[in-house]
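Translate structure to sequence.
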């Protein structure tokens, strides 16, 4: 069966699966709401439409964030606030609480990488590494991060480095 569909089509459906599911829930809710069945069934249909709308917004953001993950070098895992990258040449881990600067960099060969920096290290993760989709939820937890700017930076073809987020330094206790 896997030979029946093109790999690009399977990847596109996998990328947009949450959006497709939310649209299916909304269609079911609309179908239930417009059928004659009384106030309870109509209300249930409207509740399904509302649930689909709540699911749809983050699902659209996740789908736009995904950039064909799994095609690039290395593997990313996010576990309890710690990002782990295991690459063919380099790797490392960083806790989200220690993260000071988040940037995205696109080089001359059109390869994009996440650049994470804390006080002691720099972690460079290809945007399309296996498991890189999990970074969306990790980055979304950063206080003050603009999600739309993050998504735009991933989709942009502009060369160079772009700082997306920096942690505010806590004021010193003594002058």
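Result:
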């Amino acid at each position: 069966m896997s030979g029946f569909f093109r790999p690009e089509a399977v990847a596109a459906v996998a990328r947009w699966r949450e959006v497709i599911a939310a649209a299916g829930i909304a269609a079911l809710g609309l179908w239930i709401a417009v059928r004659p069945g009384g106030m309870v069934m109509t209300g249930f249909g409207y509740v399904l439409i509302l649930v689909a709308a709540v699911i749809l917004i983050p699902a659209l953001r996740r789908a736009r964030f995904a950039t064909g993950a799994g095609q690039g070098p290395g593997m990313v895992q996010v576990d309890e606030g710690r990002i782990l990258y295991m690459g063919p040449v380099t790797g490392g881990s960083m806790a989200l609480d220690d993260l000071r600067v988040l940037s995205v960099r696109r080089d001359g060969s059109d390869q994009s990488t996440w650049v994470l920096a804390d006080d002691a290290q720099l972690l460079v993760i290809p945007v399309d590494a296996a498991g890189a989709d999990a970074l969306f939820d990790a980055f979304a937890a950063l206080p003050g991060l603009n999600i739309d700017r993050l998504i735009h930076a991933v989709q942009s073809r502009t060369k160079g480095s772009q700082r997306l987020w920096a942690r505010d330094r806590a004021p010193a206790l003594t002058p």
